[in-house]
TrEMBL record, chain A:
It holds the Pfam family PX. This is Sorting nexin 1. Gene3D superfamilies: Arfaptin homology (AH) domain/BAR domain, Phox-like domain. Residues 317-362 form a coiled coil. GO terms for molecular function: phosphatidylinositol binding. InterPro entries: AH/BAR_dom_sf (IPR027267), PX_dom (IPR001683), PX_dom_sf (IPR036871), Vps5_C (IPR015404). The keyword Nucleotide-binding does not apply. Residues 24-143 form the PX domain. The lineage of its organism: Eukaryota, Viridiplantae, Streptophyta, Embryophyta, Tracheophyta.
TrEMBL record, chain B:
Its main location: cytoplasm. Residues 127-247 form the PX domain. It comes from the Eukaryota. This is Sorting nexin 2B-like.
Length: 400, 553
């Protein structure tokens, strides 16, 4: 459960115990889930522990209590402010499982939140965020106030895609009089978009099978347990040395059942969840893609609008209208807006290019770790199984 | 009771060729190794999978000391032949090293039937099903048909005057054989013949059904062939060697014939269990004995008197042999436990199957991902990731195959349990023989005592009449004759009962020993298999763990 090492590729983060003086660090851990409230109102609270030497943080350590919706608030604000950056994904908001609050669900969520906050803390831009500071330092009442102010304004990233599609059809038809939606004609970017969309499908499939694999481990574990019990009973029936052999086999089978349950859990937390996280990350990128499309469309709209405005302006000039001054002021404003929208769009493009490279590297590391865990776990399990069965052989030999 | 053929190898071949993997062409280098990215020098996904047959280990797997060191010969061979290939996923079953190197001569692998002893060898094959038309007596033109099977016997038993025999038999003949054996060998644990399966024969595809039946017949005859007593039976010999319709004359043992009738009588009277091997027709019972004795008439009278005296209520069989009762109970318990384990074993096999399947699907998903990332790669990190994924995919696919092979072997081992459930049925039948023989004895004893008391009464009544009562005296003489005959019958019945008891006892001893040996082999085979395949899986994943150890925290 040591989260200090999960800081990913952030270069500014170092272990707080490191002797090197005053290299800036910011590490966070999400721990100690506790069930609060009752019935429908019940929720889980987490302890968020921040260790840092960032000057803005006024202190080396701070502990606050946060709940899932606080994380959602943070994610939404970052998404709004840092367009172009791939905001780390959050675990899904579950409606049904929440009521059951199984230990496993809580642990999965805690781990995902921990990964989330640390990714932010180790991102060279996001870690500077004011909202992050608020999240990590404010007391609970302030957080609640901040949360309630913002609800309803910011939607889930996935919703942006839908909005984009809706708006796109409206705007392009009415304002621009075109049939096709306004899109960048950038073949490389097209390729990247395709890559992201296809990647999501592939990953989702892999994750599906990974989840099933966890289930299979549990089922096999149960089966080994039942088998062991039945064999033991047969052993009792047989009596003599053969009966003992049966009984021992049954006992081994039951022991292996426990190993399998353990591996199931290990597989879930260390292989399936990282895969799921990968899927979520890709979905987050899709949201950024939507943002970029929005920014592009906006810029195009303004560029079109300003053309009409120019025409109008010239008309007014010729007519020497009193409205000219105002129109000129509007025109200047519009020009500034066009510049601003262009700047915003280009920022997003630039950031995305950096982000995608960083993302690919991050994922290679994350998957490498996950694969290693998978392989280690399976190898360990297989070895235990082999040992357990082999240990029976001398006893079986003795029987004949 | 089961053959340890190298099915694992054949099956693996089948699966591999069906495997999607084989058609996925992944053996092109995704990009020239210029940017220092990993180059793929060898490719497990070669489009033509080579099945390298790895020779049997010289080292006895049982003596394999540490799990890490398992199968050294395999890995060294592999490094020479072909680096990580599927070759090491395909290999001869672990059992071939372990089981007796002696040929599997009879289908039963129990240790007591060692083939190397002379004059004890008999192997029966069932093959070549042929459709034949039902002959005369069919009113319907182009009427019904049936199947015959070629029964081939290889033997050096002296009772057979030859080494090889071929006859054609139909299923009806097998039923006859089974019935005759049940009549003649009461008290023995007689293998249960295959079902008539009337429903299946209508519902299933014909060639499937015929094949199923052929296999069942071969198994059944094989079991007869390994039974130390039944393999030498006249009935079996005739079945295997004499062509034409199955005549199978009755046994000439009059007493047992009669007593068979006697056995059936009480059952018919009291509506008891049906006799093993077929319905007892009244006509059989009524047929006069060769010896011409009037035993049947006596039994007819017996039937009358029994009906008169007891009014068709069932007399209890008084089994006094405590040891027998205990043994019976124990065997019932054993049957229950074997049945449980058999069920759980099936479940275990299914779960292993599912695990293997899902593992394979996961592997496939990663194969697709690898291909995708390789094709679309812009960054080195992607190529590195694709390489990692490929290793994982390879391992997962390999593991999936290992699960499948493991299961194929497990099923064969655990089949033995299922066979013993069949043996338990035979045991129950043998115990029934004993019970009904005892019933016969008790019935006769009881009849004797009632006859004697009738004589007493008549004598007492007759003595009161001066000069004797001629009719009564005559009656008394008749009764005394009946008593004499009944006495003899009783002695016969007692001898039969003792004989059956002896058969039971010997068979129980044989069962205990064979079961001990068979189960031991089964356990060893099961354990060695599980361990062996687990070790292979461990190796597979160890490789990936090492390859990804750079990422370890």
């Amino acid at each position: 459960m040591n989260t200090l090492e999960r800081s990913g590729s952030g270069s500014v983060v170092q272990s707080p115990r490191s002797p090197s003086p005053q290299a800036p660090y910011l590490t966070v851990s999400v721990t100690d889930p506790a069930k609060m409230g009752n019935g429908v109102q019940a929720y889980i609270s987490y302890k968020v522990i921040t260790k840092t030497n960032f000057p803005e943080y006024q202190g080396p350590e701070k502990i606050v209590i946060r709940r899932y919706s606080d994380f959602v608030w943070l994610r939404d604000r970052l998404f709004e402010k840092y367009k172009g950056i791939f905001i780390p994904p959050l675990p899904e908001k579950s409606t049904v499982e929440k009521f059951r609050f199984s230990a496993e669900f809580i642990e999965m969520r805690r781990q995902a939140l921990d990964v989330f906050i640390n990714r932010i803390a180790s991102h060279h831009e996001l870690q500077q965020s004011e909202d992050l500071r608020k999240f990590l330092l404010e007391d609970e009442q302030m957080m609640e106030r901040a949360r309630s102010q913002e609800t309803g304004i910011f939607k889930k990233p996935a919703d942006f895609m839908q909005i984009f599609k809706d708006v796109q059809s409206k705007v392009s038809d009415v304002v621009l009089g075109k049939e096709k939606p306004v899109e960048e004609s950038n073949p490389e970017y097209e390729k990247q978009k395709n890559y992201i969309f296809q990647l999501e499908d592939h990953l989702a499939e892999a994750q599906k099978h990974a989840y099933r694999l966890v289930k299979r481990h549990r089922e096999l574990g149960q089966s080994l347990s039942d088998f062991g019990k039945a064999v033991k009973l047969l052993g009792n029936c047989e009596g003599n040395s053969l009966g003992k052999a049966f009984s021992e086999l049954g006992a081994k089978s039951e022991m292996l059942s426990i190993k399998l349950q353990r591996e199931a859990h290990h597989l879930l937390m260390n292989f399936e969840e990282p895969l799921k996280d990968y899927v979520r990350a890709v979905q987050s990128i899709k949201a950024t893609i939507a943002e970029r499309a929005n920014a592009f469309r906006l810029h195009c709209e303004l560029a079109e609008t300003i053309k009409f405005k120019e025409i109008d302006l010239n008309k007014l000039r010729l007519m020497r209208s009193e409205k000219l001054a105002e129109a000129e002021r509007e025109y200047e404003q519009l020009k500034a807006d066009v510049e601003e929208s262009k700047r915003k769009f280009e920022t997003i493009v630039k950031l995305m290019n950096e982000e995608i490279a960083r993302f690919q590297e991050q994922k290679t590391v994350d998957m490498g770790v996950a694969f290693h865990e998978l392989a280690k776990g399976q190898a360990h399990q297989a070895k235990s199984i082999a040992e357990a069965w082999r240990s029976l052989l001398p006893k079986l030999e003795a029987c004949s | 009771m089961m053959g340890y053929e190298n099915q694992g190898y054949e099956e693996a071949h089948l699966y591999a060729s069906k495997e999607e993997m084989a058609s996925l062409v992944l053996n092109e280098d995704p990009s020239p190794p210029s940017n220092g990215s990993k180059s793929f020098t060898h490719d497990p996904f070669s489009s033509s999978p080579q099945f390298v047959e790895i020779p049997t280990e010289d080292t006895d797997p049982l003596q394999s000391p540490s799990p890490n060191q398992v199968l050294p010969s395999h890995s060294s061979i592999n490094s020479i032949l072909e680096p990580p290939s599927y070759a090491d996923a395909i290999f001869q079953s672990f059992d071939s090293d372990y089981v007796d190197s002696a040929e599997v001569v009879s289908q039963d692998q129990s240790l007591s039937a060692l083939p190397s002893f002379s004059s004890d060898y008999i192997k029966i094959c069932v093959s070549d099903p042929q459709k034949e038309q039902e002959q005369s007596g069919s009113l319907v033109p182009g009427g019904s048909y049936y199947f015959t099977y070629l029964i081939t016997t290889f033997t050096n038993l002296p009772e057979f005057s030859g080494a090889e025999f071929n006859v054609r038999r139909r299923f009806r003949d097998v039923v006859t054989l089974s019935d005759r054996i049940s009549e003649s060998y009461r008290g023995y644990f007689i293998p249960i013949r295959p079902d008539k399966s009337v429903v299946e024969s209508q519902v299933m595809q014909q060639n499937e059904f015929v094949e199923q039946r052929r296999i069942a017949l071969e198994k059944y005859l094989g079991r007869l062939a390994v039974h130390p007593v039944l393999k030498r039976s006249e009935e079996l010999r005739v079945f295997l060697t004499v062509s034409g319709k199955m005549p199978l004359a009755r046994t000439t043992d009059v007493a047992s014939r009669m007593l068979d009738g006697a056995v059936r009588l009480p059952k018919q009277l009291f509506g008891g269990e049906s006799v093993v091997g077929g319905a007892a027709e009244v006509s059989e019972v009524v047929q006069p004995a060769k010896g011409g004795m009037d035993l049947l008439r006596i039994f007819r009278e017996l039937k009358q008197s029994v009906v008169n005296d007891w009014g068709a209520t069932k007399p209890p069989v008084i089994e006094e042999d405590k040891e027998f009762l205990e043994k019976k109970e124990k065997l019932q318990d054993l049957e229950q436990q074997i049945s449980n384990v058999s069920q759980q074993a099936e479940s275990l096999v299914k779960n292993h199957h599912d695990m293997g399947e899902t593992m394979g699907q996961l592997g496939l998903a990663f194969v697709k991902l690898t291909k995708f990332e390789s094709e679309e790669a812009i960054y080195d990190s992607q190529r590195a990731r694709a390489a990692d994924m490929k290793n994982v995919a390879t391992a997962a696919v390999k593991a999936s195959r290992l699960y499948r092979e493991l299961n194929a072997q497990t099923v064969k081992h655990l089949e033995k349990l299922h066979e013993y459930l069949g043996v338990m049925l035979a045991v129950n039948n043998a115990f029934s023989d004993r019970t009904s023989a005892l019933l016969t004895v008790q019935t006769l004893i009881s009849e004797l005592s009632s006859l004697n008391s009738r004589i007493e009464k008549l004598e007492a009544a007759s003595s009161k009449i001066f000069g004797g009562d001629r009719s009564r005296i005559r009656k008394i003489e008749e009764l005394r004759e009946t008593v004499r005959v009944t006495e003899e019958a009783k002695n016969c019945a007692v001898r039969e009962y003792e004989r059956i008891k002896e058969n039971n006892k010997n068979e129980l001893e044989r069962l205990d020993k064979e079961r001990h040996d068979d189960f031991l082999i089964m356990l060893k085979g099961f354990v060695v298999n599980q361990a062996g395949y687990a070790e292979k899986m461990a190796n597979t994943w160890e490789t990936v763990a090492e390859e990804t150890s750079g990422y370890a925290k």
